[in-house]
Design brief:
Order of helices and strands: EHEEEEHEHEEEHEEEEHEEEEE
Number of domains: 2
CATH class of the largest domain: Alpha Beta
CATH architecture of the largest domain: Roll
InterPro entries: Glyas_Bleomycin-R_OHBP_Dase, Glyas_Fos-R_dOase_dom, GlyoxalaseI/FosfomycinResist, VOC_core, Xdiol_ring_cleave_dOase_1/2
Helix content: 10-25%
Pfam families: BphC_D1 (PF22632), Glyoxalase (PF00903)
Radius of gyration: 18 Å
GO molecular function, one term: dioxygenase activity
Protein name: 3,4-dihydroxy-9,10-secoandrosta-1,3, 5(10)-triene-9,17-dione 4,5-dioxygenase
Strand content: 25-35%
Number of strands: 18
Keywords: Aromatic hydrocarbons catabolism, Dioxygenase, Iron, Metal-binding, Oxidoreductase
Length: about 300
């Protein structure tokens, strides 16, 4: 199986309008002009009709992540591989395909009970992206082929979940870390695996060995310049949005970024300068230092 990118996320919110304000006037996406007025919030950042869909619900959490496949042939092959591996899935309904603006999809859960969708045939609406805060463009590749960014999912069952993404879904290993939060020799710590798909982005998925009620550790979005990162940091501070981590530069993907709270109960990493990799020559790594400088987490 060859996943191409993280195509969209579906988020449940007790008040979707909070995401509209945060997504447009803080992050710099735009309200999606070609999506229906159906009570949901759709946020656009490139040539795709939307990347974030926020629906009204009883909790604030990430509902699912949508991963794009290359085409119908790859999609049909993926279903056969899921069946051969004994992985159960359900087909998207006609209404869901229309809502996602895709040709076809299947929905399943990984071993840590994260819901994902595999799909093919995303629309391109080519509606001009006009950021309400002046961002020229986000880093999503050509016609969005690098996806919206990356997602870090909770994986309490880390080993079996990592094996699922590697051996069933075909994700590639990039890097791994292991964190200990005390000096106690008996502290088992928590693991973190970084995984790539079929595009140059350093990682599209990471798996963190901990449960998260919000269904997500963080989402990452990338812009083109450090100035845009600074402007966004100013907006976050002006609106008194909690800073989850200060500005810093990661070791493995070289991203210069900060983290802030979202209305979804998880964090957003907003950065620039992320490493792009030629996977034909790459050797997976083990990192013991998460950042060269900065990234002081605030609790």
């Amino acid at each position: 199986m060859k996943v191409k990118s993280l195509g969209y996320v579906l988020i449940e919110s007790t008040d979707p309008q909070n995401w509209l304000e945060f997504g447009t006037n803080v992050v710099g996406m735009m309200a999606a002009p070609t999506m229906p007025d159906d009570g949901n919030v759709y946020l656009k950042m490139d040539a795709r009709p939307y990347r974030f869909a926020i629906t009204k619900g009883e909790t604030d959490r990430l509902l699912l992540s949508g991963f794009e496949l290359g085409g119908e042939e790859e999609f049909n092959a993926a279903k056969q591989e899921l069946e051969a591996a004994g992985v159960s899935f359900e087909h998207g309904t006609a209404e869901e395909l229309q809502a996602r603006r895709v040709k076809d999809l299947v929905r399943l859960q990984d071993p840590s009970e994260n819901t994902i969708e595999l799909y093919w045939g995303s629309d391109l609406d080519y509606a001009k992206f006009i950021s309400p805060v002046g961002i020229a463009e986000f880093e999503t590749g050509v016609s969005g082929d690098m996806g919206l960014g990356h997602v870090v999912l909770p994986a309490p069952a880390l080993q079996v979940t990592h094996k699922f993404y590697r051996e069933v879904l075909g994700f590639g290993q990039v890097d791994q870390m292991h964190f200990k939060f005390t000096d106690d020799p008996a502290d088992p710590g928590q693991g973190l695996h970084f995984l790539h798909v079929d595009n140059p982005r350093h990682h599209t998925l990471a798996l963190y060995e901990a449960p998260m009620p919000s269904g997500c550790v963080h989402l990452m979005m990338e812009v083109k310049t450090i100035d845009e990162v600074g402007y966004c940091l100013d907006r976050v501070q002006e609106k008194e949005i909690p800073i989850v981590s200060t500005l810093g530069r990661h070791t493995n993907d070289e991203m210069i970024s900060f983290y802030c709270a979202t209305p979804g109960g998880f964090a957003l990493e907003f950065g620039c300068g992320g490493r792009q990799v030629d996977w034909s020559t790459y050797t997976p790594t083990v990192s013991t230092l998460p950042s060269f400088w900065g990234h002081k987490f605030q609790g």
